[in-house]
């Protein structure tokens, strides 16, 4: 069973002039396979910075602390090595990849992560099944990745990758934003199918509590000013729903 350990993580964003702007101010968090952790915080608190720095985005520089996956220092690994090690990031703003079809993209990703190409006979069915479960038109397989996709279609495509790649640790950055109520339910059901295997640990980043009605977190962490300022169980999300972030903002 896998464990992601984040210890006193400090991260700065590299500004175009070459300066460093500190964003994460010492984050401590442990995520184990089978657990779901919700990270909730207002806009600009550094949630995406946390996600990107774990995934290895070159714009973010680790200035202190560590991130390890099963004892291996993640920052020693390139971005694709991190993916092969079992880290997965569903981005807040998924990028378009012109000229690469969804079918090709997924097959290439699956091959890279498993170390061998999926069996041709079973793969087509697996892909079709994943699309059906997420209520995606089969025609999507031939479209270019995210090109002209609506916000909801992009998020379904992210969850389709999650279901096909079966990562050890999945970071979902505002997968709920921009979804209508049906899409939110469909996407949440996809996440819950992967959760049910007990083999993936989830870091669910959001600033609304509504996705947590569908995906019940085991732990809730309030994230303000680049760090965790409060932790608890699912009841903390309910408190946030009523009280908002204001109390934590003034404290930070
Ligand atoms: N490339 C960047 N250049 C300048 N500031 C940035 C950059 N990326 C992030 N920031 C700043 O870092 C802070 C945290 O951003 P972010 O991690 O996206 O927050 P969240 O996801 O919680 O809304 C914000 O104040 C944001 O403006
Ligand atoms: Mg964000």
Automatic annotation (TrEMBL):
SMART domains: AAA
Pfam families the record matches: ABC_tran
Record-linked InterPro entries: AAA+_ATPase, ABC_transporter-like_ATP-bd, FeS-cluster_ATPase_SufC, P-loop_NTPase
Keyword list, A-Z: ATP-binding, Nucleotide-binding
GO molecular function list: ATP binding; ATP hydrolysis activity
Residue stretches making up the ABC transporter domain: 4-250
Xref: NCBIfam families: sufC
Protein family membership: Belongs to the ABC transporter superfamily. Ycf16 family.
Protein name: Fe-S cluster assembly ATP-binding protein
Species of provenance: Actinoplanes lutulentus
């Amino acid at each position: 069973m896998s464990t992601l350990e984040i210890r006193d993580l400090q991260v700065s964003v590299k500004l175009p002039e070459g300066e460093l702007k500190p964003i994460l101010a010492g984050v401590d968090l442990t995520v184990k396979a089978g657990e779901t952790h919700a990270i909730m915080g207002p806009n600009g608190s550094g949630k995406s910075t946390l996600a990107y720095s774990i995934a290895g985005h070159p714009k973010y520089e680790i200035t202190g602390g560590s991130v390890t996956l099963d004892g291996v220092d993640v920052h020693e690994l390139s971005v694709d090595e991190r993916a092969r090690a079992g880290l997965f990031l569903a981005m807040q703003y998924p990028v378009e990849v012109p000229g690469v079809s969804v079918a090709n993209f997924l097959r290439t990703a699956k091959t890279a992560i498993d170390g061998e190409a999926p069996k041709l006979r079973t793969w087509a069915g697996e892909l079709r099944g994943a699309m059906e479960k997420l209520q995606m038109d089969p025609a999507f397989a031939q479209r270019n990745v995210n090109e002209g996709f609506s916000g909801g279609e992009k998020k379904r495509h992210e969850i389709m990758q999650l279901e096909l790649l079966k990562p050890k640790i999945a970071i979902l950055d505002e997968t709920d934003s921009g979804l209508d109520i049906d899409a939110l339910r469909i996407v949440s059901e996809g996440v819950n199918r992967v959760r049910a295997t007990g083999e993936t640990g989830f870091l669910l980043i959001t600033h609304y509590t509504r996705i947590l009605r569908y995906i019940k977190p085991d732990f809730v962490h309030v994230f303000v000013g680049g760090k965790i300022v409060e932790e608890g169980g699912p009841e903390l999300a309910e408190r946030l729903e009523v009280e908002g972030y204001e109390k934590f903002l003034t404290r930070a």
